[in-house]
Amino acid sequence: MPSQPSQTLDTFPNPRPEADYTIRMTMPEFTCLCPKTGQPDFAVLELEYVPDLACVELKSLKNYLWAFRDRGAFHEAVTNEIADALAAVTRPRYMRLSARFNVRGGIYTTVVATRRQPGWTPEPAVTLP
C-alpha cells in the first residue's frame, strides 16, 4: 500500500507570510468510531485558517485523518484533538475547524473549534454592492 495512516502532520513555509489570507479545505470522508457502540461515525470536516509562518501539507493531513478510522472518539473530543494538532504544527493566526457529523440516533452534531494567536484580529468584513 503506497500510504499508511499517520499521526504526523507535515508543514511547508507560508509563501506569503506578510499577508493575511484564508485557506479553506473540505474533507468529506472523515470517519471514526463511536466509543459507546463501536459503529462508524462519518463527518465532513471544514477547515479554515489564516496561516502565519507554516501551512499544513495535504498528503500528511489526509494520512493523519485516516488514523482516526479505527479509533473510538466522542465528536467533541476528536474535533478538538484535530484542531489542537493542526494549531500546534502550523501556529496559525486564526483557525476554525467545523465537524459536521452524520445523523446518529436521529441527531446531527456539529462541533466547531477555534484557535487564535493572542492579539490577532481579522480585518473588517467587506460588503460589496
Question: Describe the biggest sheet?
Answer: 4 strands, antiparallel
Our count of helices gives 2
How many structural domains can be distinguished in the coordinates? 1
Q: So, the CATH homologous superfamily?
A: GTP cyclohydrolase I, C-terminal domain/NADPH-dependent 7-cyano-7-deazaguanine reductase, N-terminal domain
What is the C-alpha radius of gyration, as a whole number of Å? Answer: 16 Å
Plain-language structure description:
- The structure is a single chain.
- With 129 residues, the chain is an alpha+beta fold.
- It has one domain (11-116): 2-Layer Sandwich (GTP Cyclohydrolase I, domain 2), CATH 3.30.1130.10.
- The chain has 2 helices and 6 strands; from the N terminus they run E-E-E-E-H-H-E-E.
- The protein has a 4-stranded antiparallel β-sheet with strand order 2-3-5-6, covered by helices on one side.
- Strand 5 and strand 6 (107-116) form a beta hairpin.
- The longest helix has 16 residues, at 75-90.
- It is globular, with a radius of gyration of 16 Å.
- The model has no long low-confidence stretch (mean pLDDT 95).
Short description:
By secondary structure, the chain is of the alpha+beta class.
Write the layout of secondary structure elements.
Layout: E1 11-13, E2 23-33, E3 40-50, E4 54-56, H1 58-66, H2 75-90, E5 94-104, E6 107-116
Antiparallel strand pairs: 1-4, 2-3, 3-5, 5-6
Question: Which labels suit this protein?
Answer:
alpha+beta, four-stranded antiparallel beta sheet, two-stranded antiparallel ribbon, 38% strand
